[in-house]
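Batch job 17 of 40 flagged for manual review because the log was empty.
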Amino acid sequence: MWYYQQGSNRMGPVDEATIRGLLASGQITIDTLVWTTGMGSWIPLQQSSLGAGLPTPPNAPHMPSATPQGINHAQKSRVAYIVLAIFLGNLGIHNFYAGRNNIGIIQLVITLCSLCTILLVPLFILIHLGLFIWRVIEMITVTKDGKGVDFN
């Protein structure tokens, strides 16, 4: 007897014929998680013994990358990235826009921590000069967003 996951619900037990019927009717897919006695964890149907002999969808490298829901990611604008870097670069906003969140967080934290040095003017200026150089280098060298998609 088999169990399968539909949405956030675990369904079953059902026999192998029922699983194949659900697959044929489109109610589940080859990526649906399944489990049966003796298995260590839930796995996609196509990797189970049920998946043996099932056709797998062809790879389509020419297709644009899509989210699991089938919606394409919108390309980010390089001009917008550069404008954000110029005006809000010390806050890392340009990197948040591009989906490079870790780098954006680092830049934001450095800027916020530098406020503690505002009375030590030379140190404050040195920190912000470093951030300025960093964002100029990013404006010149960064050509892809956080998902590896080229800017348009």
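Reviewer: the log was empty due to a logging misconfiguration, but the result itself is present. The chain has a mean pLDDT of 85. Unflagging and moving on to job 18.
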